[in-house]
Design goal:
The chain has one domain (about 1-195): Rossmann fold. α1 crosses α6 and α5 (about 105-115) crosses α6 (about 150-170). It is about 35% helix and about 20% strand. The chain has helices at about 1-10, 30-35, 50-65, 80-85, 105-115, 150-170; strands at about 20, 40, 70, 90-95, 120-125, 135-140, 175-180, 185, 195. It contains six helices and nine strands, in the order αβαβαβαβαββαβββ. The relative contact order is 0.12. It is α/β, with parallel strands linked by helices. The protein has a five-stranded mixed beta sheet with strand order 3-4-5-6-9, covered by helices on one side. A two-stranded parallel sheet has the order 1-2. The two termini are about 20 Å apart. Its EC number is 2.1.2.2. Belongs to the GART family. Keywords: Purine biosynthesis, Transferase.
């Protein structure tokens, strides 16, 4: 979330982050967002009798800000079909794997356990099928000797912090289109794969400032 806000401000997107909403009142990002002058809100899921009740309240809170897009950045809740349908084509998530590989939780451990040689992240539109929506961008990192889930997660986070802001900017600029066969096209055909070769590497390993 912080990477998205900072990129929006630094790169002067034709958009602004209108609100940050968390499912835990103690989420550290809320205080940071408040310090940036961004509206915040929190709904604790345990205060609601059902998943449907929580999602209805969340939907009401989100709609109060009238967003064009809803970006899920570390929002660790499985959303109901009703919520997903309400924001169809406007709800975007980042998942810590190269989808369709390793949907769900513990993706870094799954990658190490299966012996794949590459791992990463995927920015995608959310659909009722968990972690299977149309892909906007991906980030790729190598699996290194002696890796642990924690070490692997650090490298994935680096490409997450470049792939998600890039995708969000394309959305803000109106460049992202869904085709009839549910694939994503981006006007101008920018590089949509971000490959890790070090902390300051950009797409395909090119250094960036």
């Amino acid at each position: 979330m912080q990477a998205l806000v900072e990129a929006c401000q630094r790169e002067q997107w034709p958009a602004r982050i209108v609100a940050v909403i968390a499912s835990r009142p103690d989420a550290a990002g809320l205080q940071w967002a408040e310090g940036q002058g961004i509206a915040t809100g929190a709904l604790y899921h345990k205060d609601f009798a059902s998943r449907e009740a929580f999602d209805a309240a969340l939907m009401a809170e989100v709609d109060r800000h009238q967003p064009d897009y809803v970006l899920l950045a570390g929002f660790m809740r499985v959303l109901t079909p009703g919520f997903v349908g309400h924001y169809a084509g406007r709800l975007v998530n980042i998942h810590p794997s190269l989808l369709p590989a390793f949907p769900g939780l513990h993706t870094h451990a799954q990658a190490l356990a299966t012996g794949v040689r590459a791992h990463g992240c995927t920015v995608h539109f959310v659909t009722p099928v968990l972690d299977h929506g149309p892909i906007i961008a991906q980030g790729c990192v190598p699996i290194l000797p002696g890796d642990t889930p924690e070490r692997l997660a650090e490298r994935v986070l680096d490409v997450e912090h470049r792939a998600f802001p890039a995708a969000a900017r394309w959305l803000a600029e109106g460049r992202v289109k869904l085709t009839a066969d549910h694939r994503v096209e981006v006007e101008g055909d920018p590089e949509r794969l971000f490959i890790w070769t070090g902390a300051q590497a950009g797409p395909h390993g090119k250094n960036h400032e």
